[in-house]
Structure formats: C-alpha cells, structure tokens
C-alpha cells in the first residue's frame, strides 16, 4: 500500500462520504455490523485505487456501488447467508441504480434519515447514541470517538457493540418513525447532535466535533425541511460556532461574551444562522432550539437585553428548567440591574451542584459591592468545576475582590 | 413481534391501598385491556401474588436448592405481566406507557425471542 498525503486525503474523504453507504446497506441487511463490514471492504479498495487513479467524481456514489458489490461477493461466498441469499441479492441489485442526485428526497437520502433515527433511538443511552451517530454517519473510527469523549478505546468499543446489540435485539427498526412517535424520536436525534456539538465546543475546543455536528444537522434539515426545531438547532450551532475563536484568548482563558472581540466572529455563519432563524419562525411552531438560536441572533446583533429577556421568558414558557431560569435571571440583571437579577435567582432551586449558578450569583453580588458574599459564592463555584480555563477565570475574580476588600 | 411487558411496583403501596384504590387500579387495567385487545395488541397477561409468596429454584451439581423469596430483593417487585403483539419497539413502548403502573412503578419491555425454522 502506498502512503503519504494522497492516502490521508483518500482516508478522510472516504470516511466523510461513507455515511450514505452505511445507511443504505444497514437498511438492506437490517444490521449495522454487516453494513459496516461491506463499507470497510470498499474502504480497502479505495485506499488502493484512489491514490493511484485519482478521486472519483462522486465519491459517495462510488462507495455505495463498491460496498454493494463487496456485499454481493460476501453473500455468495459465505455460508451464513445461505438462507437469505436470494432475497438479499435481489435487494442489493437495486442499490445505487438509477439515482438522480438532483432530487431532494431520493430513497438514498431516506436511508440516511432512517439510520439517524435508528442510532438516535431514545431506548439507547445518550452516550451510546452519540458514539453510534459519529461512527455510522460521521465516519469516525472508534478510536477517534473514544478520544473525543475522553474514554478508553476498549470501553468505547464495548459501548458501541452493546448499542448495536440492543438495536438488533430490542425490536428497533431501520425506519423513519410513524407520525405518532415522531416528536419524541426527533427530540432524541436533536439532543444527540447537540451533545456532539457541545463536546466539541469545550473548553477545550475540538473544532472537528463542532463541524461534524453542524454537518449532520445540515443533513437533517435537508431531509426534514419543515421541522422548525431541526432548523433551530442548525442555526443555534452556527451562531455558537461563529463565536468559537473569540471565546478563548491566546492563553486558552475563557473570554466572556461582553468582552469578546467581535471582529473575530465568523460573519458567514452568523448570516446563515439569521436566515435559518427567520425561516424557522415562519413555520410558526417555536420550540427550545429555535428560541435559543433567536437569542444567539440577538447577541450577534449587539445584545439588546430587552429583547433577549423577552426571548428567555418565551423559553421559560416552553422549557421551565433551572438552567433556563438561571439564564433568564442573567438577562433580567442586564436589563434591570444586578438587584433584579438576584431577585430572579431567588426562585431557583436544585442548581447547588452547578458551578455556573454560583459564579453567576457571585458576579451579581460583586456588582452590588456585597464582596464577602461574592467571595464565598466564587469559592463555591471554584470547588465545582474541573475546567482549568474556568478555574483560572474564577481565581482572577477572587483575587480582584480580595484587593478591593483590602483597598 | 411479541413483547413481554413486565410490571414492577412498590408492594407496600399495594398493602396500604384502600378498597377504592384497588377498585381504581382494577378499573384502569380493564380500560387498558379493552383498548389493547381492540387494537389486536394484547395476547395475554396476569397479575402475580405478592413477592413474599415467591420461591426461587436453583439446581447445582444435581441438587435442587430452594430459597424463600424473590430472585432479587428490590424496592420494586415484579407484580404482573402483559404479552403484547407489536410491529416494533416504538409501538410496544406506546402501549407499555399506558399500563397503569407505568405512572407509579416501572414497566420493563422485552422482545420475546424468536427461533428460526
């Protein structure tokens, strides 16, 4: 086998484009392992040919066709397929034929939608959904997924195997869910993609995970163009991603939104996020992701806290969680002053173990010159976070307060 | 596919239940049974006596050992089951969520193993 830059390019391109083939073959075989096996066969062919003959015009189609042919070879030569050979061969022959890349809802596209819903089924644990999604649709290796989530590779391999076994044994179908199940199932898909994004958003930042989450969210929006929450999630990711570079300084320390250098925000991502938010509101059903994206748009436009506080009221209406209450209190503090924010925080319970709750409270107390209470709240926040970036920021605040108390 | 919905609950709640509570639970199961029966989903189901009536059997080295009590001493004990016929897990879960004990206890859903041939 040759090595060098062409192989690296072929490797990356193959894995990016292989989700289609995995999805299609998973439908045919009704089994993710068999699908991955056939695609892995095609991968070996690609590593041999692409660096030598150049890349195919349509890599995704090349992979589907090659994987299909390898699958055909396997079912003809391996005894385990004897019982289903005829049916499988007939089914495989239809794969990759007469496809029009221009049509928006081809059966091929449907295959990917089926697979997303399958690997993000709510009957699977969230961490298993994340791992399977990245492997099956993102083309990441088990080692890469393990690294991304700071898990040892054997443990991650076991997690993936267990999840596949559950899909195979629990009666989960490779199908887009019925309308009755769709809201619940879609929520599970959106949560999974957002978990992937947040794992990349850090700190520390892992841009490739953010990029992968955005790519999958784009795919979902293309497949389900009328789902306002899918549009909202894509917009939210783009808007958050636009600030990625400005969120940490040269030393890796966290920079607050108000202190960020706005010239380092990605204008193209913001513009796309704004267009998507407008499209989402036009659909008329406003959910948690679209509201959070709308808040992101307001921040990108210069943080009008009156509008942001109103959006947090709406968000609190559809999703009355303690974390939403906390962010709403921050917006109220910006609109009406730290005392009003502190009053809004008084109703929040069960966030005692959340460092940002204490850090937010500390900041409001600091602005009210209640320095002893502020120092105590910062100390509580410091004890609750492992992130070195955040610890550094909090320590800086504690020092500043102790200087002011002495001065 | 066939699925078994195993119904777990806190038996002390049952022990402290009033006549009215018991009647309400019975009625709720009747409603579930009628709905699931009409949909062609319900294949069977039974309630079990309380877990203090359980006997556990193990055979080791040809010797039968009996233990007084259930397999696992947990707060929520197996109290009954329904056998359901459903297209897939989603449909089975939709019905399982309508079993009255899903509100107060726990319902575990498992596919029935199918053998080829």
Strand count, sense and barrel status of the largest sheet of chain A are: none
Structural class of chain B: alpha+beta
In sequence order, what are the helices and strands of chain A, one letter per element? HHHHHHHHHHHHHHHHHHHH
Report low-confidence residues of chain A grouped into runs of 5 or more. Answer: 100-107
Topology (elements, then pairings):
The complex is a heterodimer of chains A (407) and B (117).
Chain A: H1 5-17, H2 19-29, H3 32-53, H4 59-77, H5 85-93, H6 107-119, H7 126-136, H8 142-148, H9 153-170, H10 182-201, H11 207-223, H12 228-242, H13 267-283, H14 288-300, H15 305-318, H16 322-336, H17 338-345, H18 355-367, H19 371-384, H20 388-406
Helix pairs in contact in A: 1-3, 2-3, 2-4, 2-6, 3-4, 4-5, 7-9, 7-10, 8-9, 10-11, 10-12, 11-12, 12-13, 12-14, 13-14, 14-15, 15-16, 16-17, 17-18, 18-19, 19-20
Chain B: E1 2-10, H1 11-15, H2 19-38, E2 42-47, E3 55-60, E4 63-68, E5 76-85, H3 89-96, E6 106-111
Antiparallel strand pairs in B: 1-5, 1-6, 2-5, 3-4
Pfam families (chain B): YCII
Domain YCII-related (chain B): 1-115
Family (chain B): Belongs to the YciI family.
Q: How is this structure best described in words?
A:
- The complex is a heterodimer of chains A (407) and B (117).
- Helices cover 71% and strands 0% of the residues of chain A.
- Chain A has 20 helices and no strands.
- The longest helix of chain A has 22 residues, at 32-53.
- Chain B is α+β, with helices and mostly antiparallel strands and 117 residues long.
- Chain B has one domain: Dimeric alpha+beta barrel (Alpha-Beta Plaits), CATH 3.30.70.1060.
- Chain B is built from three helices and six strands.
- In chain B, β3 and β4 form a beta hairpin.
- The model of chain B has no long low-confidence stretch (mean pLDDT 93).
- Chain A binds chain B through residues 83, 121, 123, 169-173, 175, 177-178, 180-181, 185, and chain B through 1, 3, 86-94, 111, 116.
- Chain B: InterPro entries: Dimeric_a/b-barrel, YCII.
- Chain B: Residues 1-115 form the YCII-related domain.
- Chain B: Belongs to the YciI family.
């Amino acid at each position: 086998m040759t090595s060098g830059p062409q192989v690296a390019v072929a490797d990356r391109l193959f894995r990016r484009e292989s989700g289609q083939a995995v999805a299609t073959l998973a439908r045919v075989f009704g089994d993710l392992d068999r699908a991955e096996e056939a695609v892995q066969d095609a991968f070996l062919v690609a590593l041999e040919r692409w660096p030598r003959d150049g890349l195919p015009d349509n890599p995704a189609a090349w992979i589907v066709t090659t994987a299909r042919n390898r699958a055909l070879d396997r079912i003809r030569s391996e005894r385990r397929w004897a019982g289903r050979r005829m049916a499988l061969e007939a089914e495989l022959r239809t794969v990759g034929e007469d496809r029009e890349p221009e049509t928006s809802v081809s059966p091929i596209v449907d295959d990917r939608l089926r697979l997303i819903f399958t690997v993000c089924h709510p009957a699977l644990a969230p961490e298993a959904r994340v791992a399977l999604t990245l492997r099956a649709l993102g083309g990441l290796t088990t080692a890469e997924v393990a690294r991304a989530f700071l898990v040892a590779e054997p443990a991650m391999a076991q997690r993936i195997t267990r999840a596949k076994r559950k899909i195979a044994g629990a009666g989960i179908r490779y199908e887009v869910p019925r309308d009755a199940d769709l809201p619940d199932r879609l929520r599970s898909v959106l949560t999974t993609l957002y978990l992937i994004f947040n794992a990349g958003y850090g700190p520390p930042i892992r841009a490739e995970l953010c990029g992968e989450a955005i790519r999958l969210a784009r795919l979902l929006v293309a497949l389900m163009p009328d789902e306002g929450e899918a549009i909202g999630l894509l917009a939210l990711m783009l808007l958050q991603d636009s600030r990625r570079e400005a969120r940490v300084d040269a030393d890796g320390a966290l920079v607050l939104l108000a202190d960020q250098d706005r010239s380092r925000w990605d204008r193209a991502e913001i513009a796309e996020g704004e267009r998507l938010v407008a499209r989402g509101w036009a659909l008329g059903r406003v959910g948690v992701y679209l509201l959070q994206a709308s808040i992101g748009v307001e921040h990108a436009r210069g943080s009008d806290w009156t509008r942001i506080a109103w959006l947090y009221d709406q968000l609190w209406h559809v999703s009355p969680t303690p974390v939403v209450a906390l962010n709403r209190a921050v917006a109220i503090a910006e609109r009406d002053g730290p005392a009003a924010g502190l009053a809004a925080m008084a109703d929040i319970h069960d966030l005692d173990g959340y460092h940002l709750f204490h850090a937010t409270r500390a900041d409001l107390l600091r602005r009210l010159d209640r320095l002893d209470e502020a120092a105590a709240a910062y100390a509580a926040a410091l004890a609750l976070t492992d992130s070195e970036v955040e610890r550094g920021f909090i320590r800086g605040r504690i020092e500043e307060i102790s200087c002011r108390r002495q001065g | 596919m066939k699925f078994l919905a195993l119904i777990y609950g806190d038996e002390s709640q049952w022990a402290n239940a009033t006549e009215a509570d018991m009647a309400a639970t019975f009625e709720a199961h009747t409603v579930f049974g009628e709905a699931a029966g009409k949909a062609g989903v319900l294949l069977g189901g039974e309630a079990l006596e309380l877990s203090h009536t359980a006997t556990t059997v193990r055979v080791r080295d040809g010797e039968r050992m009996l233990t007084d009590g259930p397999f696992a001493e947990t707060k929520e004990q197996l109290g009954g089951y329904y056998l359901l016929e459903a297209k897939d897990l989603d449909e089975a879960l939709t019905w399982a969520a309508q079993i009255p004990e899903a509100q107060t206890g726990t319902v575990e859903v498992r596919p029935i193993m199918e053998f080829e041939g």
